[in-house]
């Protein structure tokens, strides 16, 4: 059950602004598969385009971080935000980019530890040590 | 303002179970600096010890993930959880481990994008595509 | 699967304090439909009554905000809190109050943008500009 | 810095609906101290009254849970929600109701453990065991 | 204390890609004031530009939702996410766009009610009523 | 659908480090039932062992808080974090430890109230009263 309609291929083809994005998704990913997230966003073609352009710029462009590292960061945020769909889709993406079981296990361990210490810090209301000030660097 | 007392060095020295952990923190980190988080946890020596042992096992042991990558994952979780102290302390740790400004910028971009798409997915209640099923791999 | 029993109509009828609230829900909404939320709360008649009275006061009374705007604010909070049921029930309510597809698309866009900038701000730990101080107004 | 004005005693006295609630807060708590939360809510006398009535019903009425236990549950929720003010005010309330240092330490340990396992479960997307179904009881 | 440097006007002027965005912010807003959020993002000119373009598209373009309504939705998300800076900046923006005290009070009441019912629903794990299915509409 | 494999008994038996923990879970709980959480963690035997040791230390050791109170605190955190599995498993655990319907109803009421006031406080950005300072005690 969704709160918006998920556009199937025929419906997407019928809207040029949606078709253009779906074509680009397929070309960039070299796959015919367009996952449900984009089919939901397709109800608002401008939002669809902006979101896809943002994703390409952040997750696919050449950069200083390895693409697999970016996926693991994505999983970390999605977990803390409790986003089931995002945890699944980005874990699948990380595995497709070569994440090993050992790396996955360590990712889970870091996420769990951060969850624990985040809660401990907040419950104790620990003040930031002045030594952490980035301005000093 | 905290909800627990932050133990200073004299108070920590006076409790053997706390002194042992503080000594280990200083030895492992090769630094005299013990940050406020540990000074708050020191009110409960068993919790202090367990938390420090957990941190060593997850963040400092040899493993499949680069220590800097682990710090960036930690920052990602801490940001989504809104933990000011943790964002500061682990950003400082990441910088100490060599995070460049370009890497930091990309980390922020991924965190921001994940925050955006997490919200979009939840508002649309997108169902998980069966293609993401880990069981198929 | 729930953690409490959902009271059916016969069970609700049998508890006068629950029956009174269910009758009022049906009368106020001019509909026989009582959704699952109230059937769960009915296990604690006092909590049921207080919650329903709160909802009537906030969402149904005459006021300065349009009822549809109130529903959109509700959806925004529920999304950020990751509450699947609440996103569904209040999106349905917003549609019943006339939310158009264009309005829904813009609502999603604002929610997504806020999610993104919330994360960016927290990751950078931006200090509040003194210009934003409400006390100055 | 706040987003609303905090009403001082003179301003509160000048609004009968606010004065009535402030008088009741002082009478019920047997203290002249009215904390900032109520001074902010006082900008909307109806919201102030409803919130205070809700607090009295949930936190102060006779019931099945010890008042100190209720405060600890309140701290747990407030920590997970990252509410600095609420963590401080309810930790102070719990101490006023007799929370010992040992109890506080255990409360922190449970909150931290829950934070950790919540994150682990979400990252692994563990399905609920049918054995947990409340309907079976 | 921030985790990135906040660029002052001289530093921003020295980077053409940053200067271009700051000039546009000032032109669009008809004000010389550039708030700290943009000064932090300026460390990554591409992220700065994308974020500003996103904000213009979502918050400033003609559309189906009143600009004040969009600000109130923004405040709702920012509150649920616990983003202090965002609550302050968008409350200031809402007031600048004409939000009255009565509207602010109702906004707070809806946010608070949603926070309450979100938690109740999650604690009870209420299943979504089939009547809420958008696909039926 | 999960992001990791859930190890069945045969798979768990084949890994000595996993078998040892599963045996201990069964012995400590005096039950043959090993719930899915541990079957997912079993992919990383070290994480499995650390998490189980943490749980025993926090939830099962003699201490200052009643075991049922600890479960209720766990439910409170899990609810605020939106962890479906954790809400179910710890509500089942609380019922197994004797939580009555009346206690459950009050737990829900406190969780809901805290959710409401957490949001109200954050939206108003209420400053902490100096009277709450733990340092004064």
Structural description of this entry:
Chains A, B, C, D, E, F: This is Carboxymuconolactone decarboxylase-like domain-containing protein. Chains A, B, C, D, E, F: GO terms for molecular function: peroxiredoxin activity. Chains A, B, C, D, E, F: It holds the Pfam family CMD. Chains A, B, C, D, E, F: It comes from Rhizobium freirei PRF 81. 6 copies of one chain form a homohexamer. The first copy, chain A, is mainly α. Chain A has helices at residues 9-13, 16-29, 36-41, 45-60, 67-80, 84-96, 101-124. The first copy, chain A, folds into 2 domains: 1-61, AhpD-like, CATH 1.20.1290.10; 64-137, AhpD-like. In chain A, helix 2 (16-29) packs parallel to helix 4 (45-60). The relative contact order of chain A is 0.08. Chains D and F meet through helix 3, helix 4, helix 5, helix 6 and helix 7 of D and helix 3, helix 4, helix 5, helix 6 and helix 7 of F.
């Amino acid at each position: 059950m969704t709160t918006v309609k998920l556009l199937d291929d025929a419906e997407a083809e019928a809207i040029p602004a949606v078709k253009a994005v779906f074509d680009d998704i397929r070309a960039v990913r070299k796959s015919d598969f367009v996952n449900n997230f984009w089919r939901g966003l397709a109800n608002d073609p401008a939002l669809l385009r902006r979101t896809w352009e943002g994703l390409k710029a952040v997750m696919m462009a050449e950069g200083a971080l390895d693409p697999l590292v970016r996926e693991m960061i994505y999983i970390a945020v999605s977990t803390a935000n409790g986003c089931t769909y995002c945890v699944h889709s980005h874990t699948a993406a990380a595995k497709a980019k070569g994440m090993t079981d050992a790396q996955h296990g360590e990712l889970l361990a870091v996420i769990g530890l951060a969850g624990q210490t985040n809660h401990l810090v907040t419950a104790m209301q620990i003040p930031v040590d002045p030594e952490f000030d980035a301005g000093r660097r």
